Amino acid sequence: MGKEEKRDLALTLILFAVLMLGVSLAERYLNSYLIRILNTACIYVVAAVAYNLINGITGQFSLGPNGFMAIGGYTVAILMLPLVQKQQVYFLQPLIWPFNSFSFPSYLFILALFLGGLASALAALVIGIPTLRLRGDYLAIATFGFGEIINVLANNFIPLTNGALGIKGIPEYTNLWWTLNWAFWSVFMIKGLANSSFGRALKAIRENEVAAEAMGVNLFRHKLLSFVLSGFFAGVAGGLFVTLISTVSPSLFTFTMTFNLLIIIVLGGLGSITGSVITAFIFAFLQEILRVVEAPITIGAWTFPGIPGMRMVVFSVLLVVMMIFYRRGLFGGKEISWQLVIDWIKRKEIKIEK
Amino acid sequence: MKNKEPLLSLENLTVAFGGLVAVSDFSLQLFSGDLVGLIGPNGAGKTTVFNLITGQYCPNKGRIIFQGKDITGFSPDVVTTVGIARTFQNIRLFGNLTVLENVLVSFHVRLRSSFLAPMLSLPSYWREERAIRKEAYELLEAVGLEDVTKEEAQALPYGEQRRLEIARALATHPSLLLLDEPAAGMNPQETQELMKFIQKIRDDFKLTIFLIEHDMKVVMGICERIAVMDFGMKIAEGTPEEIRNNSRVIEAYLGVED
Amino acid sequence: MYALLAIGYTLVYGILGFINFAHGDVFMLGAYFSFFMIGIFLLPWWLGVIIGVVLCSIVGMSIERVAYRPLRNAPRISALITAVGVSFFIENLGLVTVGARPKGFPRPELMKNVYILAGARIQGVTFWVPIISILVLLVLLYLVYRTKMGMAMRAVSKDMETTRLMGVDVDRIILYTFALGSALAGIGGVLWACKYPQINPLMGTFPGWKAFTAAVVGGIGNVVGAMVGGFIIGLVEIMIVAFFPSLSGYRDAFVFSILIIFLLVKPSGILGETMKEKV
Description:
The structure holds three protein chains of three kinds. Chain A is an all-alpha fold. Helices cover about 70% and strands about 5% of the residues of chain A. Chain A has one domain: ABC transporter involved in vitamin B12 uptake, BtuC, CATH 1.10.3470. A two-stranded antiparallel ribbon of chain A has the order 1-2. In chain A, strand 3 and strand 4 (about 300-305) form a beta hairpin. Chain C is mainly alpha-helical. Chain C has one domain. The radius of gyration of chain C is 19 Å and the shape is globular. The interface of A and C includes residues 137, 141, 307, 312 and 317 of A.
């Protein structure tokens, strides 16, 4: 490894250590509400970075990440749900074999997460093979359709998913350790991919498919790779999510979830990983802050009645406005790299010396 | 000295799009080291021939033999791996990527590492990455773009964009290079430089070059052989002198000379 | 009923090559506008509907003006994202302003009457909706194929640049297309509300997608095809419910699957045209 890469890796590991330290401090001192928001933010990071891979970097407009998150979420839920709960929750129709006969113990949580991701990745493979041949808008429709189909399945395939009632009582394994680790390592891996030759190939596909193919890039295989990887991380995010809130139901993974992810990556800049990380956090906090807007506000003697749903209005306006005026998002496809940080510090130092 | 076996042999290529015959019974042979031009009025089917060779279109009839292998119907990415590279009539650069990245894309096809290697930041990947960066820099130096490697491709002036397209094609290590109207939109001085450039890369990189052009100065200036198309068919083939005096060619063009 | 919506989709797509995600929501607006006109302003039914539909048109045109026109030259993805945003905006605005609880839509006597035909009880609605749809289609066909406006619309769909060079005000044509498409959606919304008299802000989503399926099945870009597609999808839905009652929950999934299959296998639909990219 060259000098620069070694330095970057070292800096990254140091950052990781700092973050881990931060987590142990946070667990001790921050209130659980704040921790809940941080957890959600980290999960959004995983999902958003995955979504940015297929939408922003490869330029293939998929509207189906909610489906992949659902698959991952349900897989983890079914695997981890203790047998006692399985009896109780599935009272309409018992859970189908073999899932009703076993349940993962807590130390197999990481395995469950991987399996959730794998299940989503498999689904992505199955979906991707036919649909990735479609052109832009058609691909969007097809992936949207897939997301909806998964939703309908979740609602109706009662022996597996318990239908609209969902599954309750999933043990809460997720905590800040898990979410931050997954967030960190997924960003690390996807960033690594994006900056590599593969990333360039994917971006080339986004920029000009015909030229990319003429330079030797196999369009189908690379689109599929991006799609499947995206599916994997989305599935993991879904799995983390259900074990965070200890329930899963079809209403969690509707198109609204896709919409949220869409806002996150558009705001952060399609194709910018660092952008998505930052906007994922902003979004998680914004969601909470805007909850205030939805509850009744009392100023002086007047009480403004709460407007539920105002959040989404704000978000959708934001999205449309961004698309019209500031399409490149916060980061516009650029990234923060260690090199940039060092240059920035150096410039500050020179200023101070002067 | 030329080989006896042709490097590229196009045999009776015919392709039609929904009733319109774009190329009809087109045959041509290129030998290693040749610099051949393809000319003809607009709509004659020249770019279509290119697209047939590089696999964007599949011929209805006929064969394409490259280095002894039948590559008819191969998809464009595979065609590139066997050693044929091309540029496009309307420049197709990767606009948002830097100049260096545009060239690096061409190296991807020969990458040994799997996709997991960069994700896990394995040293084996970084070694490969450094090697291809080095080679990419050298290539950009050879075409005179070493000062702008970090610029966005779409920000380059037109002439440099054309050179970048050529550099990108060269990065795929081709034996045969197809240039589609490389001089389009250039002023006389740029055209002169381009002519010298094409001859230089042919010698430096041991290429065979097949080019489409409308600018007769370029064609007559550097091509050793010229094929002429009209309405999808080859109507003449020969040295520049022969073509210049060929009555059918003159007819087809009605005396169009730059 | 899907036919009307489908035609609207097809119109916009044919001309701009653009899928208006928000179309289904305009449909919902049609129902709501009419509802308000009738309920709040106590207008006679038919007048309320007309005003409601006109309002729909206006909304459709403003969406085009505000949200889509600035992005006319942007990469396709941007326009799609914006469409999604607009769709969400309308839906949520609806949720915010009128609440999620369904409201009852007043139905005219004509629609409510129950006729007895061959032993089965059929609502007036079931008669009128197809009749009105066909009427609308005929009017539309006349507009598109016989009037100057219609010709201009078709010209734009074939080649926007050339049409512009010929002195046609392309922007106005596009506005007109949206107006027409939105009006159709509005009418569709009202008719739907007659059949299922509960209206709520999210009612536009599923019918919207099914109508899109219909447009694709029939051939995107082709008006008659959209009509045909609409009938087919409607039929399929009814058949599923009739013959496989236990699967009726899967009805929507079915329609989507049809959509996906068609997109894969025959994107030009039954009557439509394909678009190829030139190298």
